[in-house]
Structures are given as C-alpha cells and as structure tokens.
TrEMBL record, chain A:
Pathway in which this enzyme or protein is active: Glycolipid biosynthesis; glycosylphosphatidylinositol-anchor biosynthesis
Gene transcribed to yield this protein: pigk
Lineage: Eukaryota, Metazoa, Chordata, Craniata, Vertebrata
Keywords of the record: GPI-anchor biosynthesis, Membrane, Signal, Transmembrane, Transmembrane helix
Protein name: GPI-anchor transamidase
Active site feature: 140, 182 (nucleophile)
Keyword Transmembrane helix: yes
UniProt key word Signal: yes
Gene Ontology annotations for the cellular component aspect, listed alphabetically: GPI-anchor transamidase complex
TrEMBL record, chain B:
Protein name (database record): Phosphatidylinositol glycan anchor biosynthesis class T
GO annotations of cellular component type: GPI-anchor transamidase complex
Listed GO biological process terms: attachment of GPI anchor to protein
Domain of life according to the entry: Eukaryota
Pfam families according to UniProt: Gpi16 (PF04113)
Organism listed in the record: Cyclopterus lumpus
Length: 363, 550
C-alpha cells in the first residue's frame, strides 16, 4: 500500500552510518613562498563548504596569512588558478586557528578533544561516534614526518596514536585522511585503528610537485594533487553518487608526476559503497512530524522601579585628580635608620668582644 | 512589553588633502535592558546574542576591541574620528562584583578569539597591563577603581576577511541591506588603513540620565589610497571605493545617513558632489565646526529614479590644518645588546599648552633602565607631574610606564629611555624569530584645546561620529593618539646549529672511530678470481654429474 512504500525509503534514510560531518583542514607552512599550501587548504575548504558542511563544523588552521600579506598584489584574495580565475579565499571565510596557533600540540588537542576549558566552540572538534570526519593536511613533509611552521614536526606514529585515541573515545564513525606533501604515503603507513581511509599525493621516496606559477603573484599557486582534486570536486554536487573509487583515480601519474597512493585495508566498508559526499558533504537529517507543539507563553517584562540615582559620564583626563592620586602601596621596606643602626650594633658588639684596641685602626 | 532597542547607521566620507579619501562607518545599537540585574535576557532582537552573552557571563561594564591594519598618518590625514593602534587592541572595564579579574580576563579573551576569529588567546599576563590613570571608562559610571581595568595589545595581529566576516554577522541586517553592503573585503583590504572595532558601554538615555541603556557601536574606518591603480585625478565615487552602490537602507534602522565633509568649500566652487543634496548639517567634531552634506537613505527620493545611489565626489587639492597633537616613536642605537626608545610628542598650538598622559607598555624582554628616563621640551628638562611605573617581571608581566606631561606651546617633547635586550629561552622564540619582536604602540591621551566651543549637551541629536567621546568642557576636547609600534630584533641563535653539530660530530666520530677499528681488527684473506664463462659452464655440468668443480 501507499503508506508502506513511503515508510521503506525513510527507514533506509535513517539507517546510514553517520549523522553528522566534520572537517579538519590544516596548512602547516609559513612564509610567502608557501602560498600554494594555503591555497590547497582553502580549495578543500571551499569544496567542503559548497557541498554543505557549515563553518561551525569545520576547523580551519592556516599557519600564515597569504591573503592580507603585504606581498600579495591583490589583497584579500588567494587564487588557485593562474590568471586569477578562481579566488578560493572568498568573502565568507572563518579561520579558526591562525598564525602561531597552528602547532603540533594544538592539532593533536583538536583531534583528541583535550582542550583547555575556556576554548571557544569554533575551535573545538565536537564530533561523536556517528561523525564522519575529513582530515586534510598539507605542507612540507618527509619520510615519516610532517613539518609544522619550519620549527617542529609531527611523526606518523604520533598521528596514528592520535587516531587511536579518537577511536577509543568514540570520536568518529569513519575518517578520511588526505595528505598532500612530499612522501605523503609514509604518514599513513602506521595507522592501526579501524574505519580509516587514507589518500596521499606521493609515495615514499617521491616528491609532490607544485602546479603552475602565476607571474603576477610570483609564486606557485597550487600543488598538483590538490589542483586536480579541486577540479574533480568542482564536478561533485550534494546529491552526487560518485564514490571513493573515483577519488582514488584523481591525478594519475601522467598529471601528477608523483604516484598518489591510498590505503583502505582498515576501512570496514567497501570503498565503492562510500560516497564522496559521505565525507565532503554534510548530512542534514530531517524528521517530519505531524503533531503540533505548543510554544511557551511569551515572557512578560515587569517594568521595575528604576533606581533614582543619576549617572554621569566620567572625566576622561582629570588632571588634578591624577596628580594627587594616592601612591600605591609599595613593598614594605625597613625604616631608613634601621640598617644604619643595625650595622652600628654589629660593630659595637664586635669591638666589645675583641677589645677596643682594634677600633683605632678603623677610625 | 520588551525593552526597546534602536539601530542607527551612518557613513562619513572625508576627502583628505593628500588626495586620499577617508570613509568611516558607524553602526549603533541602543538597548534599554539590564544585563546585570539577574533576570536572564533571552530574547535578542537587534543586539547580537553572542555579545550579550559575553557581557552577562563575564560581568563586563565596558568592552572596546579594535583590529587595525596599517598605521594612521596624522600629519597627512589629520585626526581620525576613532583612533586605533596597529594590530589588535582590547581594553575592558569589569563590574565591581567580579572577584577574580585576571581569571575572568583570560576567559574573556578566549571567548572573543572564537567570536572574532583572531588569536586573542595570546593575550595573557605577559602583555596585559592595568593602567592607573589612562583609559577611564567612556560610558557612565560613578566608580573608577582601576583594579577592574585591563588593557592589552597584540601588535602582530593580522586583520583579514576572516575577521570581517564575523564582524559583519553581528549587524542586525548583516551585510545584506543598508550601508553594510558596501563592506566588500577585496576593496576594504586594498587600502592604506583599515580598522574595525566594537565598542560596548552603558550610556545615558535622556538628559537627566536617570535611565541607562547599553550601546553597541561597530565602527569601520578605511582610507583609500589615491595611487591605487586606476586613480589619477581627485575624483572618487562609492563604486570606485567599494565596487558597490547603495539601493536601500537597512529596514531595521531608525536612521541611515551619509555625511560628506564639505567644510572647506561651502560655496561649491572647489568641491562637487553629485547627486546634489540640499540637506546640510553642522557638527562639532575634533574641536572644529565642520559642515556636511547629508544623504538620508530612509527617504526613497535619495535613490532617485535609478533606485541606486552612487555618490560622486570631485575636488581640487586643498590645505589642511596642522593637527595640534601628534606623536612619533622609534628605536635608536645599534647592535643586539642595548638600545634606546625615543618618543616625540608635538604640540602645534601657537600659544596654548595642554597636558598629555603617556602610557607605555614594553614587553619584559626589553629591560628598561628607568634611571635613564629623560623628558625634555625645547632642550630643557620637563618634569612630569605624575609618574606611575610598574617594573616588569621576567615571563610574568611587562613594564608599565604612565606619565602626565605638560606640553609647552609650539614645541617638541622628547621622552627617551634606554633598554637592554634579553636572551630568550629556546622554546620562547616564534617560528620566524628573524622577523623581530613587536612592542605595542604608546597611547597618548590628552585634552586638546578646541578651536570652537564644544557642545556639552550630550543627548541632543548628534551624528554618531561626533558623539563618541563624552564632552565635559567647552574649551577642549579629549583625544587619543597612538604611536607606531616598534619592531626590535632580539639576539637570535642559529636554530640549524644543533642539527649541524650533530652531523659534524657524528661524521668525525664515524670516520675517526671507523678507521681506527678497521686498522686494529681488519684481516686480509686471499680470494680466487672468478672463473671465465667456459669454466663456469663446465662447473655446472660437473655439479650435475656430482663431481667436484674445477
């Protein structure tokens, strides 16, 4: 019957694995010549926002500011394509960690949720066991490590342990890890927690190369892997059925020069059944209800008796008051004559004990 | 009923004598409510909820935060309506019910860093000071115990679109209607000076001041550069400045106006504004009476038949009055051991002297020698009538120096103090230590004599830009001037050296020890040379046969 047919797809609608999506996008490089790493991160940010993940569910970490850098000939813009075709910075960006805040410690604290209590919500990864998380890292890396701001490194062992902590604390349902650095595949070698899928832009021993420079800006704008990833994602829309196998085909060796790699052995589902929008898009669960809900009575404000005191503005520079301000309580010092008296006493005792004949040698 | 709230927006455009143009946006929300009295406020209309919750949770009496990119050049541009130092500045007055001011301050900075997407969480005890005489509350209040005041600056803080986005979201109309549609980041950050600020304070509602309301002012000051590509003549339009035109006022605003400063040319000879308007307004601002052409956006007629307003302003270059007070600061000396900070304050008034309060907050790693402090005017010693100095404590708090100095007329006053640079611990260096370390701007607060009598009636309908600083006297007005921040190099170690030393040492050890070990333990053996091809084949056949090889 009609009702039964309608209920069926709804049950399936509610039985998919995850209920919310998060993204942690990190650019770890500082300095103007690493413009491309910021552009990489911002293009993934742009795609992820476009496919539906709201700013409140994105933790964006940029180690340096390229858009308003004084070397940028077009301020408040970060371009991904040469000839300034696409501004990935946009008009509506919210960066959660920036500048010196992008450190290994802060990154691991965000992942594991062990942040100081006064950290605001926008800087936290408030995921639960039904969250699908996308983690994107870019910067300079090597065999087994990723460099943060040219002053510290995160190793693949630390990263694997952080993900294991996340698994044990039930902080994710499924996690997609993408890394675009030199020798990126070394960073996912050590993973051992379930439900992780990883992609990297190059194998161990290979360098990830940058795409094209823009002569007006003077630096390379994007890395190859992320450039082709962006082009692939631009074709994805929120209801697309493209799956992970398509993602693995992004940037073959002919375009990337390096060999992108991926790892799916820890992922419990078949990658072919995982949609791109499971990680890059956002799920909005809507529950339809037929019952009416009564809103509470509006709050009635009682006009309270206002205090009859009058207020006034404060004098901004009360010169006479400042000059005659009472001096602050200083630290206690012994009264002036005290030290002198003490020394006199010591000398007198000395000469009393050892005889007065020494006194005339002194004076 | 609900406590009433009111929203006003205005834009003031002032052409500067150097050909640049200064635009100042102010958005003010007044709300007659009481955050402090215990009844939880839960219905927010025009006042943004995030700020309302901050005020009630942290018992804030006044909050002033500004983000600035660039430095205000007083000698070329005159005085700004609302001064601000480069980087981020935050000063807060707490209510006297707060018991742990330092703890509340730390939590407040963390929450604000989330609201404004800025790294305000770097504000801690090493860059926070408690001024003893500067920064009196700008709102109403009877008690001013400076124990409840905290002031901090982050001169390194970058301002970009990610700070503008949450700032725009606090406005009642967002950036969808009214004057805020002009706020496009690509144009705003391509300027010589950009400053956005949020000021929250309690104000008087009426002339008797029996009722108070909370005032939230969001201000944005920007100076566009003449020499930006495409400009040549002194002609500006809204479209050239902001790449947008106006189509409507914010529907929630009770007043939405644009003021164009035409003071130097009332007849309209040198100055031309189109579309023309007959509305004129005079206001006393910065000690001077200025005349403005007014465009009222709440009237449909302002937009004309094309339903859009694009103001065009043309003027010939004109002289500027020398500003009465301005200041400079620089570091003198050479090397990485010692240095000297010089602060110069210029009083350009021909015959009046006036007092200034200088506030200096120097980080602990520049060790000031206060016994070398000298204040000289016109070559002679000028003894300050009030000095408050709080010495720094390494890694705990910075130096705080406040002085009240009387500036003689038409003179330069120079304040010098010597310092020594400290060597930081390895982990305290930033990832880019060779850039240098910043010292925040000095703040000079003063009562400058005004050219015309100022209006002390604080509640008459005044444009927003002239009613920010409360005015108590007619003969002088209050002003703040900020100096440049300083960039000093500290002795920086070469961070690649540990790696280099390890490589070198290991190489030497490997070569030295390896050679010695080989010499002592290596023994030589004779080995047969490998046989030719024929012999090898013969050996294979012999192996198959089971016979020993050749």
């Amino acid at each position: 019957s009609h009702a039964a047919i309608k209920i069926q797809p709804m049950r399936q609608f509610f039985s998919s694995g995850h209920t919310n999506n998060w993204a942690v996008l990190v650019c770890t490089s500082r300095f103007w010549f690493n413009y491309r790493h910021v552009a990489n991160t911002l293009s993934v940010y742009r795609s992820v926002k476009r496919l539906g993940i709201p700013d409140s569910h994105i933790v964006l970490m940029l180690a340096d500011d390229m858009a308003c850098n004084h070397r940028n000939p077009k301020p408040a813009t970060v371009f991904s394509h040469k000839n300034m075709e696409l501004n990935v910075y946009g008009d509506d960006v919210e960066v959660d960690y920036r500048g010196y805040e992008v450190t290994v410690e802060n990154f691991l604290r965000v992942l594991t949720g062990r942040l100081p209590p006064s950290t605001p919500r926008s800087k936290r990864l408030l995921s639960d066991d039904r969250s699908n998380i996308l983690i994107y890292l870019t910067g300079h890396g090597g065999n087994g490590f990723l460099k943060f701001q040219d002053s510290e490194e995160i190793s693949n062992v630390e990263l694997a342990d952080a993900f294991e902590q996340m698994w044990q604390k039930r902080r994710y349902n499924e996690l997609l890890f993408i890394i675009d650095t030199c020798q990126g595949a070394s960073m996912y070698e050590r993973f051992y927690s379930p439900n992780l899928m990883a992609l990297a832009s190059s194998q161990v021993g290979e360098d990830s190369l940058s795409h094209q420079p823009d002569l007006a800006i003077g630096v390379h704008l994007m890395d190859r892997y992320t450039f082709y990833l962006l082009e692939f994602l631009e074709d994805i829309h929120p209801s697309s059925k493209a799956n992970m196998n398509d993602l693995f085909k992004v940037c073959p060796k002919s375009q990337c020069v390096s060999t992108p790699g991926h790892r799916t052995d820890l992922f419990l589902r078949d990658p072919g059944s995982a949609l791109i929008t499971d990680f890059f898009g956002s799920v909005r669960k809507v529950e339809i209800t037929m019952e009416t809900i009564n809103l509470t009575e509006p709050i009635h404000f009682v006009n309270e008796e206002r205090q009859k005191e009058t207020y006034s503005y404060v004098d901004q520079l009360p010169v006479s008051e400042i000059i005659h301000q009472k001096p602050k309580q200083k630290d206690w010092h012994p009264p002036d004559g005290f030290i002198l008296g003490l020394w006199t006493l010591i000398l007198l005792v000395f000469f009393k004990t050892y005889g007065m004949k020494h006194l005339k040698h002194i004076f | 009923g609900c406590p009433k709230d009111d929203f006003q927006e205005e834009l003031v455009i002032r052409p500067l004598h150097s050909g640049d143009i200064y635009a100042s946006f102010q958005f003010r929300t007044l709300w007659e409510t009481d955050f402090m009295r215990g009844n939880k406020v839960s219905h927010y209309r025009l006042f943004p909820k995030s700020l309302g919750q901050v005020i009630s949770k942290f018992s804030v009496r006044e909050l002033h935060i500004s983000f600035t990119q660039g430095y205000w050049r007083t000698m070329q541009w005159g005085q700004p309506f609302l001064p601000s130092p480069p980087g981020a500045e935050l000063w807060v007055w707490f209510q006297d019910s707060v018991t742990d001011v330092d703890g509340t301050w730390k939590e407040l900075t963390n929450v604000l860093s989330g609201i404004f997407c800025a790294s305000l969480n770097f504000i801690d005890s090493t860059n926070t000071v408690q001024p003893s005489a500067s920064f009196k509350p700008l709102g109403i209040g009877n008690v001013t115990d400076h124990r409840f005041l905290r002031y901090a600056t982050l001169p390194r803080e970058i301002v970009c679109t990610e700070n503008l986005t949450p700032w725009k979201k606090l406005l009642p109309c967002g950036s969808k209607a009214g004057l805020a549609v002009l706020l496009k980041s690509e144009k705003l950050f391509h300027s010589s000076f950009h400053s956005q600020a949020v000021h929250i304070r309690p104000v008087c509602q009426d002339w008797q001041c029996k009722t108070t309301s909370w005032e939230l002012r969001q201000t944005l000051n920007v100076v566009f550069d003449l020499h930006t590509p495409g400009q040549g003549k002194l002609e500006w339009s809204l479209f050239k400045m902001f790449s947008r035109t106006l189509t409507e006022a914010c529907p929630l605003a009770s007043s939405s106006k644009i003021y164009i400063d035409i003071t130097d040319d009332p007849q309209g000879e040198q100055f031309e504004v189109s579309p023309a308007t007959h509305l004129l307004s005079q206001a006393m601002v910065l000690g001077d009476r200025r005349t403005f052409s007014v465009y009222d956006l709440t009237q449909q007629i302002t937009f004309g038949t094309v339903r859009s307003l694009n103001l065009l302003i043309r003027w010939k270059s004109r002289d500027m009055l020398r500003p009465l007070l301005h200041a400079e600061r620089y570091v003198a000396g050479y090397g990485l051991q010692t240095g000297e900070i010089h602060t110069l304050m210029y009083n350009n008034h021909p015959y009046r002297s006036f007092p200034v309060l200088l506030l200096d907050s120097v980080p602990w790693y520049l060790r000031l020698y206060i016994h070398t402090l000298t204040v000289t005017s016109k070559g002679k010693d000028n003894k300050p009538s009030y000095i408050h100095y709080q010495p720094s404590k390494d890694r705990v708090r910075p130096h705080l120096l406040e002085m009240l100095v009387q500036l003689p007329p038409n003179s330069v006053t120079e304040v010098t103090v010597q310092f020594e640079r400290a060597l930081l611990k390895w982990t305290e260096y930033t990832p880019d230590p060779n850039h240098g370390f910043y010292v925040g701007s000095s703040v000079i607060s003063s009562l400058v004599p005004s050219i015309v009598a100022m209006d002390t009636n604080s509640t008459r309908e005044q444009p927003l830009f002239s009613s920010f600083f409360p005015c108590k006297e007619e003969s002088s007005y209050f002003m703040r001037v900020y100096t440049e921040p300083l960039l000093v190099n500290l002795p920086t170690p070469d961070f690649s050296m540990p790696y280099n030393v390890i490589c070198l040492t290991c190489t030497v050890v490997a070569v030295g020890y390896g050679s010695l070990y080989n010499l002592l333990t290596r023994s030589f053996q004779i080995e047969e040379p490998s046989p030719g091809l024929a012999k090898r084949i013969a050996n294979i056949i012999r192996k198959m046969r089971g016979v020993p090889p050749l």
